[in-house]
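Quick one: examine this chain and its backbone structure tokens and tell me how the chain folds. Here goes:
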Amino acid sequence: MVNPVFLIIVPLGFAFSIPLFSLISRKIVKFIPPLSMLFNFIVSIGLMPVVLNKPVVISLGGFPPPFCISLFVGPVGILFSALIALVGFLVSIYGINYIKDGDRYHILYLLLLTGATGVVLTGDIFNLFVFYEILCISSYALVSYLGEKPAVESSVKYLIQGSIGSSFVLIGIALLYGKFGTLNMADIAKNINSVSQMYLFLPLILFITGFGIEAAIFPLNAWLPDAHSSAPSTISAILSGIAIKIGLYGIARIIFTIFGISSILYFLLLLGLLTLLIGELSAFSQKNIKRMLAYSSIGQMGLILFAISLATLHSIEGGLFQIITHAFSKSLLFLAAGCMIYKTGTMEISSFEGIGREMPLTSLGFTIGAFSLIGLPPFMGFGSKFLIISSILEKGGALFVLFAGIVLLGTVIEGAYFFKIIQVLYFKKRKSEESVKLQKVPVSALIPMFILVILIITIGIYPGIVSGILKGASSELLNKVQYINNALGR
């Protein structure tokens, strides 16, 4: 078994070695992120059967838990680690010829993915914050990478809101440390019931607000549409496919593992539904393709938050399945949109009229990504949405039937704006006789889109491929006692 600490050390080491590789050959540098993420993906897949049997706890610093710095590699962590590595690998292949002279870009890209991986593997709440900050700071810089005025403005907006969120998380950590005298998440969880619920209310709200900003939960999502529309398409794909889900991971880990508080779940249910509807309605009114996809991501985060907040094995399994669906489908959509933007030189949806005939493969990839997000069979989105809807109805009662209706309404709105774009791509002719700019899309940009299409269809037809890890991850989140025992070596 490869030590899970290499999942953090390898991409971090490669990030800081890029300037050295650049001295040897600038052509080598663009292949470092794909190699790093391929290594992480292979290691994560290799660890899955191990952690499904028993989570792996790595103690660093020479002390036993809870006094050491620890990594806790369970089903949830390894699921997210594999997802981060796979999406990071595919997007980095897309960027091989998409990003020019990108030493700084590749360093920040690897740091973002390292931070995301560290967040999902650490068993120490302060190191969770440290890795979270690495992710956020790298994201701020990458949003403004192109150096254009809208990108810089979006980055500053993101920086301000993200810094406020990070401060809330840090204050919440300080309050917990002041009360329990430890930073180990399992040790805090073990003793959490010894403290008055009133005392826990403030740090809980700070954590939810802080991580909610990165997760783009309403009303904390103002940064996301501008950031996604201004960033390079590769970074839009990573922000939507990976970064905002780390915020959701933080909320889930804090609520289920550390606090174990169920009284706030109804509030999060309603917040998830509100985020879903506002995101989908906002996406419906957009004329800019990347802003539309950004608002769509907000709606999807609301759906996932709602599913996780139902707090049943099936609902959490459905929410985690939807995270995978969204990561693959939205990454595919942003990469396909990036090719269309590269070809036409504009982000306006109206400029893509008839482009389905000029870019058949890219348009087909966009269509499949859209169908998957809507939840049409045989794509993987059907399985994840079906699991969420069935878990709502399992709850029983008129209220949950109403909730299921609202989720389906969000899906109808989502279908409406995606079908509107598909109509533009395939069924509308260009208003002028001029063709779009003849900029050839690199072949390296088509490879990751093809792989994502295969994954979406394959998992849609054979959902059993991921069902084992999803069941293990949902059980881990709900079984707080088992988490504590595993993390503290009992």
